[in-house]
Structure to design on (1050 residues):
């Protein structure tokens, strides 16, 4: 069984695309070969900046012969039909076989597809793979029409076994497959022929190409850490950078250099970001000083001066880059030390979103909301508002303009320079968090208040202008913002009625959008105060708008309905996010639904507490049986209510009870009701459900012994009212009707 | 005399070597376009000639102006007026990378001592409605050139594809000559009877233009000129293809394109004066792009653009 070796040799492939491309080559080739009947024993794909390589071992020499049976027309069918069948099957009249079937005599054809030699199949599959390769971006070159990531120069494609290697005959857009390749662009010795994978890999290494990206990365990391260690330093780990650098070189040569003394005063993150972004340098830290004092760069070649010229050149470029960074840092510090007024002023002229005003407008709204949230999260209102007003100041700084990824962090440094305390500095750094699902959630109260207000302002803003995420489109990262709020609330165990903050902030956006005239502005301002005091939009409408003596501007009339709708829709969006979040933690979606149906569902903490207790409860034997009891009671009751057109909700009396089990159920309900309701009052859902569990036995016994639909109408009504007590108790913990099973 | 071996000694030496190298490789060595442009790509020898099926090979120096980069001649690397060296070959030859590396050797970069890398950098010009894929070329970590395979220009797919090389001459020369501040770079030979530095030639103009670009240029006038250029471009393109006077078919792609270049530079000046807001910026770029597209549409209707009656 032969081995297959393919190399697609091109001009430099972007580092970020290489690993994926090697995988795609492997997948497309093996899928295509297997589909054509060629199985194989093993497959390995590789990438370097200039080549994608695939090595398959133990490929079948040819695809197996396949016999296919086809059913034709009936014997005696019109000649035309028979001829058509023969044409379709590609066989002659005498190859037809007559068979008796329960439907009479029918012609059958057996078509034999002979196996094809591997070379032909490989050629077809490779051509298809090259022509339809899923590059994220591809291009044409010269006068050709083929697309590849950069110009494709040669194709090596050989099948080899003990007897030797044969080139697979193949030509794509003028590129004829062969058995040759070349090594390193500068250190290689020109083109050479290979006989198989081992030969190929060894010849490449001799011509200064390490084929495996993992081996290159390992080599880089090994040399870099050793070099740093020899001087008592350590390399700052960066897996993404390591992978990228391994994709920029075929023959890595690690060089280490010093960062000039002038720049050691820069924040370490600035050094690191500048070196990484602009030059793909690793940072090297001196553990004694805690500072980044050296850099590691990876060249793509050896030189007779051991890289001295290359290192000197790189150091020079670094000097220029860091001079820029230092210039930004010093200018920024000057502005910060003067209180940062220039920056805040400038944010008034920077558009956040054309329908949501400037960054300055946004900061003012966030500051107002932060002030309201602060007492709920244990933060001082004045301090929290101050933090919110500073938190985005660094967006005007030169450093953040140059390195946007340093936003927040620079805010911290500049807050310290401006003389703010830890709370304000911390909030500047942390208020964007959490960004990803694994990102840490801030815990300092002031940071929490600003982080919540920032995200809630964004969400309510985009809801106001009706720019919600749809399908996979979420350009403003609103799903992430909502998840951020959920995690902030849950991980800090905050009791926060989101509803009122939605309403308040939606109204704030409304004022920004529609507060041109003094009357509107005044009325909405009064409503804002009402919501701040009482937290209820409806009450604010009654107190302010309904009591207004005069013609209400039309947009305020509409607002009465629109704002609650928007607020409800936003809460629904939060619930959807919460479902995804809790599902990942193993909580059933029907359990969440049952809890969302309860009042107070804008209090995420309460909602989750309830859901967890319910999930645990349903996992017990008692829970499962009680659920069945509830469902039975509820079904009988709903049917009766529908039939009778009344709601049975009151008046069950033990004096009409006939059976012992009926009386026992009355007693059990009397006994449990108090405990359950006081436990729910105290939000102790587990004990409440524990008490409910004690009802399981009496309910089971009741259904065992009693026929609810008695002929005696008084007894029947009494029993239905008794069932309604069960329903009421059960529904007081969650809407169990939504539980499946 | 140009020294053809050994290290170059001056800025002009590097330019002359590039000219000699690309002339020897068969390019038509052209002269700078006689209008203010932001980059060598704007020269019609690149923008317009990259369109259509006709083969083309040109190399030239193009003075380029970026008003916002003015630093009064004080920054060691930044200038509002600088030189680009531009090469455009259509169709892109299969050995373009090797040709390019040869040009680096021609200006004294020893391939055995330096680390040359092709690092992904896709090129896009929103004002020209153009894009391509390629790299920035690094020499020891320093970006010394842009290398692009044009895919689209003026909204037209490029068939065949042109290969474009752009060298930032000052930066490249500073590196080769080992100079840290652009103004200290020898412009002619240091032992010439009258040795001149880059600063001797350009420091004063950098100061004058920085002041004018940032603080003095009359924005009302610039705005008016922008609109006039735009209107003139449209007016030229709206003419019938057949000239009523001569009876010949004369599509005026180049005169129209001059107006497009003019509008583009006026926009850059307005931008440097800080009178264009973030939202307006996109709109202005869109207006210039619309002109560039129409000029490209017109060029492909000319003989040089492949039009055959």
């Amino acid at each position: 069984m032969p081995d297959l070796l393919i190399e697609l040799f091109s001009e430099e492939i972007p580092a970020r695309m290489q690993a994926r491309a090697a995988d795609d080559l492997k997948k497309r080739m093996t899928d295509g070969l297997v589909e054509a009947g060629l199985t194989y024993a093993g497959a390995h794909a590789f990438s370097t900046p200039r080549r994608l390589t695939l090595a398959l071992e133990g490929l079948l020499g040819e695809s197996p012969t396949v016999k296919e049976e086809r059913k034709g027309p009936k014997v005696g069918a019109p000649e035309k039909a028979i001829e058509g069948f023969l044409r379709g099957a590609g066989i002659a009249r005498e190859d037809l076989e007559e068979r008796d079937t329960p439907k009479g005599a029918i012609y059958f054809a057996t078509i034999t597809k002979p196996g094809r030699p591997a070379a032909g199949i490989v050629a077809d599959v490779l051509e298809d793979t090259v022509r339809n390769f899923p590059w994220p971006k591809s291009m044409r070159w010269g006068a050709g029409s083929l697309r590849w990531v950069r110009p494709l120069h040669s194709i090596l494609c050989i099948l080899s076994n003990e007897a030797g290697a044969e080139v697979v005959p193949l030509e794509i857009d003028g590129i004829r497959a062969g058995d040759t390749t070349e090594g390193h662009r500068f250190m290689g010795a020109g083109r050479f022929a290979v006989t198989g994978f081992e030969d190929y890999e060894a010849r490449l290494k001799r011509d200064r190409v390490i084929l495996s990206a993992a081996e290159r990365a390992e080599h880089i990391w090994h040399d870099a850490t050793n070099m740093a260690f020899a001087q008592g330093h350590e390399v700052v780990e960066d897996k993404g950078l390591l992978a990228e650098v391994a994709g920029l070189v075929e023959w890595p040569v690690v060089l280490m250099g010093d960062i000039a003394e002038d720049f050691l005063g820069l924040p370490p993150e600035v050094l690191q970001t500048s070196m990484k972004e602009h030059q793909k340098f690793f940072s090297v830290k001196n553990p004694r000083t805690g500072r980044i004092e050296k850099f590691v760069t990876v060249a793509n070649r050896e030189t007779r001066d051991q890289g001295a010229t290359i290192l000197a050149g790189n150091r020079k470029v670094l000097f220029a880059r860091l001079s820029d960074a230092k210039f930004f840092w010093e200018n920024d510090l000057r502005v910060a030390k003067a209180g940062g007024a220039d920056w805040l002023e400038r944010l008034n002229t920077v558009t956040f979103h054309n329908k949501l005003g400037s960054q300055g407008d946004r900061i003012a709204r966030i500051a107002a909301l932060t002030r309201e949230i602060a007492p709920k999260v244990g933060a001082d209102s004045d301090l929290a508002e101050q933090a919110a007003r500073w938190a985005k100041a660094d967006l005007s700084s030169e450093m953040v303009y140059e390195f946007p990824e340093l936003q927040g962090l620079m805010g911290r440094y500049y807050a310290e320079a401006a003389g703010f305390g830890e709370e304000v500095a911390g909030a500047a750094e942390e208020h964007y968090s959490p960004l990803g699902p694994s990102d840490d959630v801030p815990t300092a109260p002031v940071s929490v208040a600003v982080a919540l207000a920032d995200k809630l302002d964004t969400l309510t803003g985009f809801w106001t202008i009706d720019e919600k995420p749809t399908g996979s489109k979420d350009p403003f990262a609103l799903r992430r913002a909502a998840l951020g709020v959920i995690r902030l609330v849950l991980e800090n165990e905050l009791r926060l009625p989101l509803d009122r903050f939605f309403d308040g902030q939606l109204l704030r956006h409304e004022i920004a959008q529609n507060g041109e005239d003094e009357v509107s502005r005044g009325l909405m301002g009064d409503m804002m105060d009402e919501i701040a005091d009482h937290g209820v939009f409806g009450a604010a409408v009654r107190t302010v708008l309904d009591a207004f003596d005069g013609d209400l501007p039309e947009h305020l009339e509409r607002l009465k309905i629109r704002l609650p709708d928007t607020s409800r829709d936003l809460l629904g969006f939060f619930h959807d996010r919460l479902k995804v979040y809790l599902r990942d933690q193993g909580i059933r979606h029907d359990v969440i639904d049952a809890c969302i149906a309860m009042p107070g569902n804008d209090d995420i903490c309460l909602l989750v507490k309830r859901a967890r207790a319910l999930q645990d409860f349903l996992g017990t034997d008692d829970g499962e049986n009680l659920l069945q009891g509830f469902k039975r009671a509820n079904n009988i009751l709903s049917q009766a209510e529908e039939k009778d057109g009344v709601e049975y909700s009151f008046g069950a009396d033990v004096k009409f009870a006939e059976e012992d089990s009926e009386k026992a159920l009355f007693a059990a309900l009397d006994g449990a009701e108090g405990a359950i309701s006081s436990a729910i009052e105290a939000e102790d859902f587990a004990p409440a459900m524990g008490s409910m569990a004690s009802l399981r036995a009496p309910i089971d016994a009741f259904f065992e012994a009693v026929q609810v639909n008695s002929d005696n109408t008084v007894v029947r009504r009494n029993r239905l009212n008794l069932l309604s007590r069960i329903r009421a108790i059960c529904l007081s913990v969650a809407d169990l009707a939504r539980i499946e099973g | 005399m140009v020294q053809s071996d050994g290290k170059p000694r001056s800025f002009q030496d590097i330019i002359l070597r590039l000219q000699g190298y690309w002339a020897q490789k068969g390019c038509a060595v052209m002269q700078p376009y006689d209008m203010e442009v932001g980059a060598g790509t704007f020269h019609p020898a690149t923008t317009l000639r990259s369109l259509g099926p006709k083969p083309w090979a040109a190399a030239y120096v193009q003075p380029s102006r970026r008003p916002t980069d003015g630093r009064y001649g004080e920054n060691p690397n930044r200038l509002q007026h600088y030189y680009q060296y531009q090469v455009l070959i259509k169709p892109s030859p299969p050995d373009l990378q090797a040709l390019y590396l040869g040009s680096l050797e021609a200006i004294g970069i020893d391939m055995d001592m330096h680390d040359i890398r092709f690092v992904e950098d896709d090129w896009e010009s929103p004002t020209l409605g153009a894009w391509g894929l390629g790299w920035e070329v690094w020499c020891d970590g320093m970006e010394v050139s842009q290398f692009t395979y044009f895919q689209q220009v003026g909204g037209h797919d490029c068939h065949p594809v042109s290969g474009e090389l752009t060298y930032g001459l000052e930066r490249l020369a500073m590196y080769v000559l080992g100079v840290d501040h652009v103004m200290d770079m020898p412009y002619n030979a240091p032992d010439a009877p009258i040795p001149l530095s880059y600063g001797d030639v350009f420091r004063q103009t950098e100061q004058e233009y920085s002041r004018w670009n940032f603080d003095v240029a009359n924005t009302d006038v610039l705005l008016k000129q922008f609109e006039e250029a735009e209107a003139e471009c449209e007016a030229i393109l709206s003419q019938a293809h057949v000239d009523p006077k001569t009876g010949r078919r004369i599509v005026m792609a180049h005169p129209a394109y001059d107006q497009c270049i003019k509008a583009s530079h006026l926009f850059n000046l307005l931008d440097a004066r800080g009178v264009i807001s973030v939202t307006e910026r996109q709109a202005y770029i869109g207006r210039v792009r619309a002109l560039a597209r129409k000029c490209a549409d017109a060029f492909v209707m000319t003989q040089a653009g492949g039009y055959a009656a």
